[in-house]
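Format notes (please read before filing issues)

Several people have asked whether sequences and structure tokens are stored in separate files. They are not. Every record keeps both together, in the order shown below: the sequence lines, then the token lines. Line labels are part of the format and must not be stripped during preprocessing.
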Amino acid sequence: MELNYLFYSNKRPSAPEGDFIDNIHKSWWGNYDLLERHHGYIQFLFPLFEGNGMNNFAKRLKKEEAKLMREDLSIAKRFIKSYELMLDFYGMKLLDQTTGKIGRNENWAERFNNLSTHSHNNLRLTRILTCMGHLGFKKWKKPLIDFLTKEVNGGHIKNCNHTLNYFWKPTLDVNSKAYKLKTFEEEEDRGDSIFFSSN
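Then the structure lines:
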């Protein structure tokens, strides 16, 4: 079985200096210093068809592997926890698991400032949005981007306007050349997660 599937099945830890996914969800939640400075976990939580990014321990998400992950309810539930972990890190929260609606968390001002001043988090958000498409949560992209658009335009998330328009919003346009080059997705790769048919 492939690495990303095994990691999301809680059978292999992330690396370097990582942990099993269930432990990450439990022990890393709210540890903003760790989530900020650690650069090896994000590729495991949000694997991509394009590759492992800057982490040589991570593996490219294979299309057949992604299909298996979309069809596994326990993996879907872990993906949601991964998403909520990162939303909390950014000062946001998932308000509705059906629609994907996003709202501010109680700590939003401090965390929005962190997002505005640590640009590598912009790249992480692009990765999260892209991975949503791979693992069957594409319908949650627009609510997140709508929320980010409102906060960027309102001046609450500063220094992110360029990223919003040239990296985050393009993750919605599945027919654009840039989208296809970035995601390596074909139409058959965009099936919904089993999560949405199980509720």
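For reference, the curators noted about this record: Residues 3-198 form one domain. The mean pLDDT is 94.
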